[in-house]
Each structure stands twice: as structure tokens, then as C-alpha cells.
Amino acid sequence: MNTIKKNRNLILVLCLTLGLAPFYPEPHIWGKLKWIAGGGVGMEFKDYFDLLFHGFPWILLIIWLSLKAKDLAR
Question: Of 40, 42, 56, 60, which has the highest C-beta tally within 10 A?
Fold first, then answer.
């Protein structure tokens, strides 16, 4: 977990690039989340994999933020 703490800038760059790409007409992950919220009708395995691929930087960011909050609470 120390590796995650040390790579804050990398995690932020990943969120802003891979996590949001492609940017037009809306961030790709946002479109996938809306699709799932609408019931996910027609989603295939590749769509779920794509969601995981674009969502992984955001998962890392959440882990980093929770570790940072835990350190600040001490």
C-alpha cells in the first residue's frame, strides 16, 4: 500500500487521461455508468471489461484518498 501513497501524481494523471477518455461527447466511464444505471440492457462482456478498464484509475484514487484520510485521522 505504500506504493499507492507514493504515486499520487501518477494516479491523478491516470484518472484525467485513461479514466475520462474519450472526452467527447461525454467521458466514456460516465456513459457506461449511465448505461448500467438504466438497466444495462444490451451490455456484453466487453462493455463490462471496458468499464473496469476506465474505472480502475478511479478505484486507485478512492483507495489513495481513504489511506490519506486514515493517516490524517491518526
Answer: 60
Distance, CA of 57 to CA of 40 (rounded, Å): 22
23 neighbors 33 (Cβ within 8 angstroms):
no
Contacts of range 23-31, beta carbons closer than 8 Å, 24 or more positions apart: 28/54, 29/54, 29/55, 29/58
Domain count, the chain: 1
Distance CA 3, CA 5 (A): 5
Could you report how far apart the first and last alpha carbons of the chain are, in Å? 17
pLDDT in tens, 13-39: 999 999 888 888 888 899 999 999 999
